[in-house]
Design brief:
By secondary structure, this protein is α/β, with parallel strands linked by helices. Helix content is 44%, strand content 18%. Helix 11 links the parallel strand 10 and strand 11. The protein is elongated and about 70 Å long. The protein starts with a helix and ends with a strand.
């Protein structure tokens, strides 16, 4: 089996232009329209209210056509183009988006991302919804990429969590993947994660793990959250697949990684930031889970400029 460092080096060798501007180093397939459309439709309806875009309807003739340019106003990683495209298309099927830079592109201020053509009323009616999605998801991808870049020399992977904004989980987790991260659980139904409250209610870590194994099928992974080396040793003795090392300082993390090496996958969590991610990765932990990637990320500044009346 290859070490993490060897695997990371091999990945870099197969993608030498990973930081090249305009490249798409992580070619993530967009989410299916079936998933996206209900969310985008709800967002448009929220904005259109009971009467539609009364400003555009009042001052722009119905037959006016326009071309608008999506442009980056700061550096970052692009994510969310399909949601933006769908925002315009649901307003009017005659709109057309001409993509110049794909999701995953490293943006610089002034870069033109895409051109949108079609009825002016429809373009302006969808503008804010499209930009809300695109700016937020690009913010998620950008924050993920900054951390992924910082920890890449250590072979550690950055994960998002279930701390997502209600209704946006699939989109935010997509943006994390575009930024070079990976997804932890999508929900409560796709893996077992035994946390401190589970253990407290069950009475012991052993009881929680044994009950989980009796309930789960052979394809359902079992992860246990631990916050002391003694708990970690108990979890390792029970042969759990993954251990979540919660709120440990770097010295303790190093000891934990040493204890778990070859026995369980290690994941660090708890207050991790862009500033601390590299030092945590240097302990040798396999994964770092960061809720801030989705619950409190700053949107990337992207605008929509008119090219023709």
């Amino acid at each position: 089996m290859q070490s993490k460092t060897t695997t990371a080096a091999a990945a870099a060798a197969t993608c030498p232009d990973a930081t090249h501007r305009g490249s798409n180093p992580w070619p993530i397939a967009p989410l299916p329209r079936l998933i996206l459309e209900p969310q985008v439709r709800a967002a448009l309806l929220e904005d259109l209210g009971r009467r539609g875009d009364v400003t555009s309807d009042a001052i722009i003739p119905a037959d006016t056509q326009a071309t608008l340019a999506l442009r980056a106003r700061e550096s970052g990683v692009l994510a969310g183009l399909e949601v933006a495209r769908l925002s315009f298309e649901l307003m009017d099927g005659h709109t057309r988006m001409e993509v110049l830079l794909p999701d995953g592109s490293r943006l610089q201020p002034g870069d033109t991302i895409a051109l949108v053509h079609g009825p002016a009323r429809a373009l302006l009616g969808a503008e804010r919804t499209a930009l809300n999605y695109l700016s937020h998801l690009s913010g998620v991808a950008s924050a993920t990429a900054r951390i992924a870049d910082a920890i890449r020399p250590y072979g550690t992977q950055v994960n998002c969590t279930r701390k997502t904004l209600p209704g946006l989980r699939s989109l935010q987790k997509y943006a994390v993947r575009v930024g070079g991260g990976s997804n932890h659980r999508y929900g409560l139904d796709d893996a077992i994660l035994i946390k401190d409250n589970h253990i407290a209610i069950c009475g012991s870590l052993r009881a929680a793990v044994e009950r989980a194994r009796a309930h789960a099928g052979h394809l359902t992974a079992v992860e246990v959250e631990v916050d002391t080396l003694a708990q970690l040793q108990e979890a390792l003795d029970l042969n759990v697949a993954v251990v979540l090392l919660d709120n440990m300082d770097t010295a303790t993390l190093r000891q934990a990684v040493s204890l778990a090496r070859g026995r369980a996958i290690t994941e660090a969590s708890g207050g991790v930031s862009e500033a601390s991610a590299a030092s945590i990765a240097a302990t040798g932990v396999d994964y770092i889970a960061i809720g801030a990637l989705t619950h409190s990320v700053r949107a990337l500044d992207i605008g929509l400029d008119s090219l023709s009346p």
